[in-house]
Specification:
- By secondary structure, the chain is of the alpha+beta class.
- 31% of the residues lie in helices and 22% in strands.
- It contains eight helices and eleven strands.
- It has a seven-stranded mixed beta sheet with strand order 1-2-3-4-5-11-10, sandwiched between helices.
- The radius of gyration is 19 Å and the shape is globular.
- The two termini are 28 Å apart.
Length: 262
């Protein structure tokens, strides 16, 4: 299938809204604001009292719909100010994918002493960041994210280029046995730990060292992309990402910091 792309703008805003009505995710408010938007209700009882009881048979979740409306409103304000950037990918005329990018100095848009360190660029000389990919479920593993990445790089090039930073996972690994053991014995059980110690894949990355795989499924993939996808465009790994990587014996998985100058 041939995909097309457009940048996020006032004109393409309806497509952004339509796309995020069909997928999970925070509409990139996490990276734009440096944290998820505050929850208006923390428990199921509070959500039911404020928004009504969800109807799972009809996939009606009032609290979730309210939260999504909040997220879209927050992003829309930044789009109208020219402070939110990204690429929409289209298949058969419908938005099926998304990639968020932005200037490193502007992500998040407001920084204070509460901003988590993983929300800012790892290298002080980075000019741009590519942070997130989202693909509609029925279009996954068809090259949507790769198409979005190519368009994002071209958009950055047209804005003068510079050093671009990303923090994808090292490599994915789908292991049904891990999920079965977690369901049977619980996540932190010794059975899970023993299996992972004996079977979890890792590999050597030049200049970085040994990195562990990240668990994925047939339907899921890290929203940050994979190292191999960025390598195809010339990105080079510089170090293991200490903020996104996990040394937990029951949940290993590494991300890497990658950079490209254009």
């Amino acid at each position: 299938m041939r995909f097309t792309t457009k940048e996020l703008s006032k004109r393409t805003w309806p497509d952004f809204e339509r796309f995020f009505s069909q997928v999970h995710g925070c509409a990139c408010t996490l990276y734009l604001h440096g944290r998820h938007l505050p929850s208006v209700a923390r428990t199921a009882t509070e959500r039911a009292e404020r928004f009504g009881v969800p109807d799972r048979s009809r996939s009606v979740f009032p609290a979730r719909a309210f939260g999504r409306a909040q997220e879209l409103s927050a992003v829309k304000e930044l789009v109208w100010q020219g402070r939110a950037h990204g690429i929409l990918v289209y298949g058969r005329g419908e938005p099926v994918g998304w990639c968020h990018f932005g200037r490193a100095s502007a992500l998040p848009v407001v920084r204070d002493d509460r901003t988590p360190p993983e929300m800012v660029a790892r290298h002080p000389s980075s000019d741009w960041r590519i942070t997130c990919f989202t693909t509609r479920m029925d279009y996954r593993r068809r090259g949507v994210a790769t198409t979005a990445l190519a368009a994002a790089l071209e958009a950055i090039r047209q804005r003068g280029g510079g050093w671009i930073e990303a923090t994808p996972i090292a490599f994915p690994h789908n292991d049904p046995t891990v999920r079965k053991l977690r369901k049977t014995y619980r996540w932190r059980s010794q059975e899970v730990i023993d299996y992972l110690e004996e079977n979890w894949p890792h590999k050597e990355v030049p200049g970085v060292g040994s990195v562990n795989a990240c668990l994925t499924t047939a339907k899921s993939m890290s929203h940050a992309g994979t190292m191999s996808m960025f390598e195809r465009f010339g990105f080079q790994p510089t170090k293991r990402d200490e903020y996104r990587s996990s040394d937990r014996s029951w949940d290993p998985g590494d991300s890497v910091v990658m950079r490209l100058q254009i």
